[in-house]
TrEMBL record:
Pfam families: Fer2. CDD domains: fer2 (cd00207). It comes from Actinoplanes auranticolor. One of its GO terms (molecular function) is metal ion binding. Its cofactor is [2Fe-2S] cluster. It comes from the Bacteria. Residues 20-111 form the 2Fe-2S ferredoxin-type domain. The keyword rRNA-binding does not apply. Keywords: 2Fe-2S, Electron transport, Iron, Iron-sulfur, Metal-binding, Transport. This is 2Fe-2S ferredoxin-type domain-containing protein. Belongs to the 2Fe2S plant-type ferredoxin family.
C-alpha cells in the first residue's frame, strides 16, 4: 500500500505580522479581493474565500499553483519547482507564498 502525506507550505521564515490584501485576477480581469492573515499562504486565503485557485500537491513540488505576481512582494520557501526563468517572469507558487505587502495575482495558466 502506498501512502502519501502532504503538509502546508506556510513555514516561510520571514512573514508579516499584519493581514495583507490580495487581489486575484484572471487574464487581467478582477476576480476578487480577500485578506490574507499572518502565516496564511496565498493559496489558503484564496481557497478559504471560495476563489478558483489552481493547486494540487500544496507543498511546492508540482507547480499546479503557479501564479503570476502582478504587484507587491511575497516570501516563499525554497527549493521549489520553479525554474529561474519562471521566477524572473514573476511567477510564484501560491501554496508556498505569504504576502509581505498588498499583492495582486493573475491566476490564469501560464502560456
Amino acid at each position: 500500500m502506498h501512502h502519501e502525506r502532504y503538509a502546508s507550505g506556510t513555514d516561510t521564515g520571514v512573514a508579516t505580522t499584519v493581514p495583507q490584501e490580495m487581489t486575484v485576477e484572471e487574464n487581467g480581469q478582477r476576480v476578487a479581493t480577500v485578506v490574507v492573515e499572518p502565516g496564511q499562504t496565498l493559496l489558503d486565503a484564496g481557497l478559504a474565500a471560495g476563489l478558483p485557485m489552481p493547486f494540487s500537491c500544496t507543498v511546492g513540488n508540482c507547480g499546479e499553483c503557479m501564479v503570476r505576481l502582478r504587484g507587491g512582494e511575497v516570501t516563499q520557501n525554497g527549493p521549489n519547482c520553479l525554474t529561474p526563468g519562471q521566477q524572473a517572469d514573476g511567477f510564484v507558487l501560491a501554496c508556498m507564498s505569504c504576502p509581505l505587502s498588498t499583492v495582486t495575482l493573475d491566476i490564469a495558466p501560464p502560456q
